[in-house]
């Protein structure tokens, strides 16, 4: 894959990744999956999180695992679903915490591109999945790539707020420089652990930090 269709700011800092053997193997695997069955998100949306949120615009990073595997759900942004699709339980809980924390009611749509355009990088660790088969593209190379994404942010940017919900995201964020950025951790917003997610005030803490560093707060509606 000589020409990776991804925002130019990201292509510049990640160009060495695209020349590594794991990348060739990953792209070959992904290509075969799209040719032989149904894979989410649609191929044009694999790098949507990066295209909506260029490297120099990132203010917040929300780390997820892999895309939703249901019909028409995944759209390339972690925790998000396409407009008109029923909100998954985790996203419902995120909206509930926003309302409790900030006193605002998020829009009913689960397409979180409205956040991404404000500088929220909604980063899944694995960027593709086979329909109806969660974690089916795990350990194929995506994790190496998205680790490189976090590493490049760590090296090129500062004063970013990282929202690491659940053990998986927290492990992925271990390399983040805590002195130059704000790292907020809690349980995952899924129904299994939501009681340990609620009440952490991550959204107000995030906005306070951004404003303290002379950046515009995120409108979490």
UniProtKB/TrEMBL annotation:
GO MF terms held by the record: uracil DNA N-glycosylase activity
Alphabetically ordered keywords of this record: Cytoplasm, DNA damage, DNA repair, Hydrolase
CDD domains named in the record: UDG-F1-like
Top-level taxon: Bacteria
Its EC number(s): 3.2.2.27
Domain Uracil-DNA glycosylase-like: 51-210
A cellular component annotation (GO) from this entry: cytoplasm
Keyword Nucleotide-binding: no
Function: Excises uracil residues from the DNA which can arise as a result of misincorporation of dUMP residues by DNA polymerase or due to deamination of cytosine.
UniProt-recorded name of the protein: Uracil-DNA glycosylase
Source species: Candidatus Roizmanbacteria bacterium CG22_combo_CG10-13_8_21_14_all_34_12
Gene it is expressed from: ung
